[in-house]
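We now fix the convention by which a protein and its fold are recorded. The integers have meaning only within a learned vocabulary of local backbone shapes. The record below shows the convention in full.
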Amino acid sequence: MEKANPKGSGWMQGVAPWQTRPYSVMTKPVGPICNLDCTYCYYLEKEKLFARSEKYRMSTALLDKYIREYIQSQSTPEITFTWQGGEPTLLGVDFFRRVVALQEEHADGRTIHNCLQTNGTLLNDEWSSFFAQHKFLIGISVDGPAELHDAYRVDKRQRPTFDRVLQGVGYLKKHGVEFNTLTVVNRLNSKKPRKVYRFLKEMGSEFIQFIPLVERKPNATARSLGLDLASPPDLSEAEEEHSPVTSWSVGSVAYGDFLIAIFDEWVRKDVGSTFVQLFDVALNNWMGLGSPLCVFAEKCGRALVMEHNGDVYSCDHFVYPKYRLGNVADQSLGAMVESSAQIKFGEDKLTTLPAYCRSCEVRFACNGECPKHRFMHTPSGEPGLNYLCGGYKKFFKHIDPYMRTMCQLLHEKRPASDIMAQLA
């Protein structure tokens, strides 16, 4: 729900119609450049979109225009900037000092928040002091304990990175910086759900995000979108013949089992103290409030991505020439958000949903999940089924009685955490 315009504030005067609908932009000021070489990274190959002579650093002029337009085109009194990469800390602290200065210059009475996603390996006292001073929320990418994290998350010399990540987290803790964790669930760590979850809690993460790794093998369609993807390591001969995804991608049912194992521990011990994004979103949907997360919403299109050169794309997972909306240097950011192409992109999430999904008993919780994963066929042969369908269906059916109980508790003005006492 949008907050009322603060009395006496002038930031809503003369706004265009599209400036009353909130949206977000994942900003990549360093583009796809990173100091790591994670096996499963889908973004490193985006360098092929740019000339070899490209300088991967957002210019001060472009940064100023973007920050000014992003603030002016939002209708809410609180505005959040999200910085990602690649690895944004490669730009150095001074770049983000400039970011904060520009935000203060253009805020016009608004409260500005910043979130920055990092692999954590370059963090130090200087970075952490800056984050603490300006109240940045930091997302740390970590895939579990060392043997699971280092399996895929290596540097350019193929060396493990786990120890450097934990050292970076130590700096954040030292300076009192708020952080959460983002864990990519892959073929390997999906087999150790409780080990991953307990490790994340032990390292001090109270806000946990799980992202399923689903990476399609290179095909003609991918190349037609403008990218000639590198070939992944082979699966076993039998798997290679039938699997549409790379050898490091999580299995559909395996992802469901991973979530179930963690949920069963969380719902008995950690409700109200550890926040798992997917579980919170599910409760929202069971409450009938709709999903605050695009992948489980009926429609999408309000979460865009901007590259270091100002190119704006429909979504972080659709950075291909076909989905380029324009460039913020010569086009209005708000107009691109409300363009017919972007509106259609968001509505297609609903209109292309297969009949099989429309009649599904857990559709309200899933809504077909992310379109990038819809490359399977339904039992009747209809295209557009989500690769993770089996896992999500198993998970959502499993949590249904618990979600209903928590909904009832909330309707009775009691905390959802009371479910733990009932289950005990």
